[in-house]
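TICKET #2291
ISSUE: user wants both folds in one file
ATTACHMENT 1:
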Amino acid sequence: MTGPGDERSFWRDNSLSLVFGGLLLLTLAAQSWWGAALYNEEARTAGLQEISLWRYVTSSTFAVDVAENWQSEFLQFVLYIFFTVWLVQRGSSESKRPGNEGRESDEQQLVKGHARAGSPSWAKVGGWRTRLYSHSLVTAMAVLFVLSWTAQAIAGRVANNEERLRDRLDPMSLTEYLRAPDFWSRTLQNWQSELLAIGTMVVFAIYLRERGSPESKEVGAPHHLTSSSD
């Protein structure tokens, strides 16, 4: 049985993921509400039939708006996780120390014979399972990126063809849509914003601080120090 203390401990120990999960649901609900309002406003202007909130949420228009943002976020993490293995930024808390580039040794990574009692089982066994687990984070992010990008392409094509049919134009195949300005305009405007965000975070973390945040160096740490152990 679990007591009140265990329940409080669960909420405290998982507060970061729970808060972000709640914010995700709230923003999705708000996006669907305002997205439906915008859709119906444009429909009235064009003399078209308005739709219900449920129909909008299940439409290709809503799906492509969500998917195009999700895929850029996952791409950001794929690139950042991979590049921070090999690239460094002196003075940034978002970087390893210069000279520590690379995959690091088994001892540093606590794998195989260097694993501890509480280490994940796949970190201990060696072979293909340890190799797979060693790259599981970037692999998972890459899979989610491909899935969300595919969803964007499929939903975007349907939404684009609906607009083309209203304009009495022939619909496009998926291959044609993947070469169309609409697809790449949606894609690249999200990619550049993510690259800007992560790039500014890397540089700002050299000179700026947020007391108590693991994303920041100590308030009194010199700018040139990449970590507290430099």
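ATTACHMENT 2:
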Amino acid sequence: MNTNVTSPAKTDLENYDNSWYKQPPRLKALAWWVVSSVFINSPLLTPYRFKAFVLRCFGAKIGRGVALKPQVIIKYPWLLSVGDFVWIGEHVWIDNLCPVVIGNNACLSQGAMLLTGNHNYTSTNFDLMVGQITIDEGVWIGAKAIVCPGVHCRSHAVLCAGSVATKNLEQYQIYQGNPAVFIKERTIKH
């Protein structure tokens, strides 16, 4: 019998430590949670301009003509920058542990998720990892699609419904699948 066999390492969440990550002050986070529950992550039909005002009060940079549908979740508005005439659909979740930048005329369809955080599954401590998401001008993130940490969706790229972007999306290209792969060029007719 071989007695030199070692057992594989295991996840040890007791030793999880994300102390390097700068959490917002608790009072600020609590205030945002309360206000967001009433005006942003709410089924109420609150006017878009008022929602933009609320987000700006909490440090978000919000452009003109932004359409923000009901029941949107935004983790930290002070880490969010949204351009002009952006559409954000129902049940969109912007889990921004670090900056998320959304360019002009971009569309996040219903249930889309922008996830800036993940965990290192190769570490026994399951370390937190974060990466900025950038959505350029004219990008369309389809319904229930997911954009993963560190992904840059370049000008007018499309991520089809239900797809998962784990790598950058190139401009004027359409991606589909899990993980999303290039399927064809995007042509916009005048």
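RESOLUTION: both attachments delivered.
EXTRA DETAIL ON ATTACHMENT 2: The chain has a mean pLDDT of 95.
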